[in-house]
Amino acid sequence: MFDHKLRKTxxxxxxxxxxxxxxxxxxxxxxxxKLDRDADVFKSPDGTxxxxxxxxxxxxxxxxxxxxxxxxDHRHAFQLNPDENDDLPGYPAGFRFSPDSQWLVRMQKLxxxxxxxxxYRRNGFQFSPATKKPFGELAWDYFFTTPTSKGxxxxxxxxxxxxxxxxxxxxxxxxxxAWMGQHWPDSRYVVVxxxxxxxxxxxxxxxxxxxxxxxDLKTGAFSVPPDFAKNNAESxxxxxxx
Length: 242
Hints:
Layout: H1 4-18, E1 34-35, E2 42-43, E3 50-57, E4 63-70, E5 78-79, E6 93-97, E7 103-111, E8 114-123, E9 126-129, H2 135-143, E10 163-169, E11 189-197, E12 207-216, E13 221-223, H3 229-235, E14 236-237
Antiparallel strand pairs: 1-3, 2-3, 3-4, 4-5, 6-7, 7-8, 8-9, 10-11, 11-12, 12-13, 12-14
């Protein structure tokens, strides 16, 4: 899991590129990075962009990852995460596009029991951060403004302030969440699931497992639709009174 210092570095790097022009255009992966044939290859719904994951072995046996996009003819090389080159993730990622191929969510494992999301906006064959702060961070910030978070606390000494914090993309983005019975406008919303736990013998505060909210790609705002009320009520867990 990232330490507190690395989390700060990640956020500062993200802020530095969120308002700048895409800077990932290059000839291809850096020296030492090889195509990870075990990692999934993803394609945009319109078939014009593909994602490949390149890994570099470290002396301790771990790996570092760069994520690259190309067109169908393997041209227009673009690194999705150039801002992370000093602190590259040690895990492969998952990717999902909006149905119109204009928005991209990256699902990134950070460590044991920890995962976050990054949101990008597409411009031709290039991508840029769609938010000024990492998307997963924004989701947690929103959660802690809701009544559900009452009595729950973020620990400033821990990455993301929580134990085993995960931000998950709920399945169905590519179909506008039809399976959930929603009839939302095409490529308008992203549904997110949040979870964290509490550790220790003297745990007294509640936690959540699979709390849902929605991000509006048009307005840049989070909300909780009424249809999510039952799920979110059941997502709150309490310590065993014994």
